Amino acid sequence: MVGEGTFGPFALGHNGNLVNADxxxxxxxxxxxxxxxxxxxxxxxxxxxxxxxxxxxEAVTDLMHEMSGAYSLVLLAPDKVLAVRDPYGVRxxxxxxxxxxxYVVASETCALHTIGxxxxxxxxxxxxxxxDREGFSATQVLEPTRKACCIFEFIYFARPDSHIYGxxxxxxxxxxxxxxxxxxxxxxxxxxxxxxxxxPHAMGYAAVAxxxxxEGFIKNRYIHRTFIAPDQHLRQLGVRMKLTPLKEAVxxxxxxxxxxxxxxxxxxxxxxxxxxxxxxxEIHLRINCPPIKRGCFYGVDTSSDPNELIAARMEVDxxxxxxxxxxxxxxxxxxxxxxxxxxxxxxxxxxxxxxYPIPIPDEMKPKKATTAKKTAPEPTQxxxx
Length: 385
Fold this sequence. Notes:
four-stranded parallel sheet, 19 strands
């Protein structure tokens, strides 16, 4: 978003999600300010544009005291760059340096390597970094209550060659696979990962299980993440467009299919069906995180409506049957935290346990999920006869 305040023009980029954006919007509109756009980023830009402060640093400081939620911000002014992180550090943000001495900021450390920069450090929760001709300076605008980095960054969202909290995302995912293999072993002929995000998980599982790892799907690299497609029809269509099973590799095999997560369940079922059509004899599904039972209010589109989350409506055995797998096991919370190697209090795990670190306004709180009832299985053809 772009705008202009008394301090001059600015451009604003935002990763995250505010939980009080509606309240801020109403206050702006009550004061006669028109917010150009429907996003929370547009609300931020409107707050900055109406600021009477002389410097962008002062205006952003005021804004940080108004906002509640997850925000990693980068701001461009005519003579400086600002990087700002919310006091919980929900989303990643880092500072790098080029060979020539110029400083840069990015959401993930993997971006620094692409442009030939070295990591200096992460932007601390509640901190504002200012980069200008003199170098960079740091100000602790808000004191952090506690760290609450989104654990889903380690499971799925971050690129595997990034580092968060100084920990390798790739190695953390492999360790999740190691621990899941110990927690939920099963006899099989081949371990495959759902490409691409689950490949490190699957490699870790195969190494500990001592079962060969191989490819079961070929990915169409022009199709993007399906769980964030805008509706269910597109998510289901996207599975067949995105993945092609390798029939020669999976036919007649007992498969362990490793995936990073199950959100709605609308893509996992079709993936299993593809493998069945390709001739897989058994499919044992292994998921490298606990069941996702709550929505995210901090920037991941997993829906705030629990009725859209399959684990909020069904027990594990019901999910297994619904998806058509022969068995289903999730990595438990203890092993998930052990894989990352830092205390649980460093993370937001609300999508698993409903322990939201940043209070959610009553108007945003979801209704209780409608739980699926267990029913007796349909009789087999032989029984019916």
